[in-house]
Design a protein that fits this description.
It comes from Denitrificimonas caeni. The protein is an alpha+beta fold. β9 (179-185) and β10 (190-195) form a beta hairpin. Helices cover 29% and strands 24% of the residues. It has helices at 6-17, 21-43, 65-78, 219-230, 248-258, 279-292, 323-334, and strands at 52-56, 62-64, 84-89, 96-97, 107-115, 126-134, 159-165, 169-174, 179-185, 190-195, 206-208, 241-242, 261-264, 277-278, 296-298, 315-316, 318-321. Strands 4-3-5-6-7-8-9-10 form an 8-stranded mixed beta sheet, with helices on both faces. It has 7 helices and 17 strands. The protein binds 1,6-di-O-phosphono-alpha-D-fructofuranose (AFP). 1,6-di-O-phosphono-alpha-D-fructofuranose binds next to β5. 1,6-di-O-phosphono-alpha-D-fructofuranose is lined by residues 61, 112, 115-118, 210, 246-248, 264, 276-277.
């Protein structure tokens, strides 16, 4: 049987869907960087890559050595090819400028280099999340690319994906015409198409939320989770199961595989911040993937991909996954 590699899939996309060659190259380079990150992650203690750097990122979170290493891998892989006008990352305060010695391209790459990095030291799945936008026309303007170029709604994404470093390493990708999953064949060093048309089941009996924050949630979330917990005896008249990996990549991957609802609501711990997750490099790419797989993604009040970002590291409440449940909790917010 002929196996379809990521390269072959992308070349066929270029032919049939007019995916520009520059975008094809970009995805190939990101995939190559993910293979390098996978290699570092899998070395664990043998590679001396576990533990913290002793520094904090712009969000005030302690940076793991692998957060910093993964960020460097993505920057170095993508800065020289001429396909990007700039990059932005969870691990950098400001937009990354393509060095002047390299040509610039027409795309912007935004990423969380290592999502769920608190899982690294305990050998649980982590991942890389990325989003691709077009760089707005600069009208011949030279000089540094400002943050405003990146501040585009999720609906403007031309591609999004994630790599999951788990029992298997996979790359899950959307170019806006469905969702494909590629599994890394580590002997051949290639991502092979193994999940051709990923769809999220509309109904589910599984939910994902960090229950330890329950006392901080807003009323609609308390009501909804309370109903889930009542199971068959409650108004929803069925038993639900709960899972929480604490790496969005792994929780979303499970939902893409067998359905479910993922929630990281706004809560009262930091009232000025609407949630923990970041809009541009976590919520938007995951929302694009979930919607392309037939699921729904909102912040409780509106579609996440319609939100106009106001800053690079903006946070957002997230409810995504199986249509029926996301619509139910979104409905509770309007009551
Ligand atoms: P990092 O990317 O900083 O490791 O954070 C992971 C994450 O943003 C997301 O992937 C998880 O769903 C969420 O945080 C876990 O949060 P809790 O620490 O509240 O479980």
């Amino acid at each position: 049987m002929t196996r379809t590699s990521l390269s072959r899939f992308l070349i066929e996309q270029t032919r049939s869907h007019q995916t520009p060659a520059e975008l094809r190259f970009l995805i190939e380079v990101v995939a190559r960087a993910c293979k390098m990150i996978n290699h570092q992650v899998s070395k664990g203690a043998l590679g001396g890559v576990l533990g913290s750097m002793g520094t904090e990122n712009v969000q005030g979170e302690v940076q793991k050595k692998l957060d910093v290493l993964s960020n460097e891998i993505l920057l170095e892989a993508n800065e020289w090819g001429g396909h990007l006008a700039g990059m932005a990352s969870e691990e950098m305060d400001n937009a990354y400028q393509i060095p002047g010695k390299y040509p610039k391209g027409s795309y912007l790459l935004v990423f969380d280099p290592l999502d769920g990095s608190s899982n690294i030291d305990v050998n649980v799945s982590v991942g890389t999340i990325f989003s691709v936008l077009r760089c707005p026309d600069r009208n011949g303007e030279e000089g540094d690319l400002g943050e405003e170029a990146f501040l585009q709604a999720g609906t403007e994404q031309v591609a999004a994906g994630y790599a999951i470093y788990g029992p298997q390493t996979m790359l899950v990708l959307t170019l806006g015409n469905g969702v494909k999953g590629f599994t890394l064949d580590s002997e051949m060093g290639s991502f092979i198409l193994t999940h051709d048309n990923i769809r999220v089941p509309e109904t589910t009996a599984e939910f994902a939320i960090n229950m330890s924050n329950q006392r901080h949630w807003e009323a609609p979330v308390k009501r909804y989770v309370d109903e889930l917990l009542q199971g068959q005896e409650g108004p929803l008249e069925k038993d639900y199961n709960m899972r929480w990996v604490a790496a969005m990549v792994a929780d979303v991957h499970r939902i893409l595989t067998r359905g479910g609802i993922f929630m990281y609501p706004r809560d009262a711990r930091e009232p000025e911040k609407p949630g923990k997750l970041r809009l541009m490099y976590e919520a938007n790419p995951m929302s694009f993937i979930i919607e392309q797989a037939g699921g729904v993604s909102t912040n409780g009040h509106q579609r996440i991909m319609d939100i106009q970002p106001e800053s690079l590291h903006e946070r957002v409440a997230v409810f995504l996954g199986s249509k029926d449940e996301v619509e139910r909790i979104t409905g509770y917010h309007s009551k």
